[in-house]
């Protein structure tokens, strides 16, 4: 690491960059080819030196090589896990499906802790940030623990040397001290023993092994990048750049602009789900453009400017160069990755269809000078959170083999602005305290027993994960329940440093709805707590349409069927419904109301694409839900608006200020439009547990709207849902 110097490297690259993984592999191949010859020569020299040492001091050589081998393993683990050799479930929340709700980024085999992330839930207004960045001392301690534990796997009780005539007398246990230095790492082993061979006795105690890994520079660079994200929110600035570049009234390509007003004959309407996909895809495409000066792969991207479009593109690329470092890291490269991973993205209040905030006809005078027939105003609020994987690499480490270091950050936008941690930041030290809170030495309560059961069957439920939390201070994974004498239970001690009333236990298991109970651990009490959790029931789902006429007939079903029997009503329910049409796309959102203290939020979202024959399933539990659904007609349509005539009286003409006009019909072109919906509370009964499928109903007009009045009526159908609740409630079969 040096103070900054001046760099003049330039390179030409194509406009579009492939997904980051391809770049990563291509870089690896390039560096392999470049360094192979040098590594081979160095390897031959090392072999000669090692052979000479082994002949003169075989015991020292054997022990030091084992320390080096196991120490390298430990640092490679730390490299893949953000400086942590161990990912202890007591210290990390890994029980989540959304990577922005975890303490670490998990993908396939990767488990990479966040060095800066939003610890509170994405929807929680009380913002709390945290970090799982270990101190350099913590990494050294974990490496020492690992080498002490695993060393004999290599030494193998000195059997190799015993085969050469050595006898060993072990006088103590191995103790390792790890020290990260400026350009390498020293491992000091204190392991007292004596050897005897051919009448000669020799005492051993201290051994030293050096690892050729420039870990300190890499760690310092990762720290600088993290501090820059905290102080300058450069990832959020990048996110806003991408969102701005995508904002367009072209609903087939872009996303809603954050704010714009325009005149035209066409109004923009977007689908929330499609917008989320476009944002994730665009982030994936643009991430390879990010450059951090004063690193080894700081190569400016230059695009040949041939027209205004490429000039704008070059300006956008230039805005993705973030000059955030205080020192020069010429021997370490930085790559940032986002590969369309699951993210939290919500526009406005999460409604399925995104429409103009205001829409009205323009005065005739403005239309005569060339402005459009419709004035449209758009005002959208974006909430975006997603994980970012950073890979730092030094090619010279391990004698040309190279060393990689992974860590994760999180980008957070709320209401179009970077979400900062100015007021409630949990700094690195607090993150360390949270980690300490979950260590075994902090578990000093009486023995606590947690018994878990299936809420439907009442049967014992094993393999349920138990977490103990204290407000927003810490959450510790305590363990999992196991079957003991026909009862599923966890027994253990908890952290006692939580004020009375601030603690709670949470039980989670895949396929079940989490549940929490209030409990604050104390040193004296040994308590037994029973927690029942609901199993999620998976059923096939379908959506049917009911028109206003259908609903009227169902409301007055005796006149419709000519009978007052319940069977007649059931027959009417079956007949007065219609399958989704060829151009119908439907969005369904369900949010379960908490039935009792301790229940967690439950929300699910489904999309039914037009012309799709795919069978869909949904997982639910009994309870009361807020149901919101919308039907989008995916065909171009012309909607007319009638502007009434204005007649001026003689005195208005005399005074002035009145402009007579004839009745006028204006046509507005729509690529698609919402023409149906439902907004109501529905109760899903315990019959769900015996059902195979569930049918939801949505209100639609009799015909496709052709006037603004008809379209307005269609958009307001959801408001009429409660009036027809009995005919729109879901049906279990």
Summarize the structure.
The protein is an alpha+beta fold and 733 residues long.
Q: Could you describe the 3D structure shown?
A:
The strands form 10 sheets. Strands 2, 3, 4, 12, 13, 17, 18 and 19 form an 8-stranded mixed beta sheet that branches. Strands 28, 29, 32, 37 and 38 form a 5-stranded mixed beta sheet that branches. This protein is of the alpha+beta class and 733 residues long. The model is unreliable at 5-49, 364-372 and 423-434 (pLDDT under 50). Among the domains are: 438-533, Carboxypeptidase-like, regulatory domain (Immunoglobulin-like); 537-636 and 671-732, no CATH class. The N and C termini lie far apart (68 Å). 27% of the residues lie in helices and 32% in strands. The chain is built from 16 helices and 38 strands. Helix 1 packs antiparallel against helix 2 (58-80), helix 2 crosses helix 3 (136-155) and helix 6 packs across helix 7 (272-286). A hairpin with a 2-residue loop joins strand 23 (482-484) and strand 24.
List keywords for this structure.
single chain; 733 residues; alpha+beta; Immunoglobulin-like; eight-stranded mixed sheet; five-stranded mixed sheet; 16 helices; 38 strands; 27% helix; 32% strand; globular
Helix content: 25-40%
What is the count of helical runs? 16
Instruction: Give the overall silhouette.
Output: globular
Structural class estimated from helices and strands: alpha+beta
Mean pLDDT: 81
Radius of gyration: 33 Å
Tell how many strands the DSSP assignment holds.
38
- Work out the strand percent: 25-35%
Main beta-sheet annotation? 8 strands, mixed
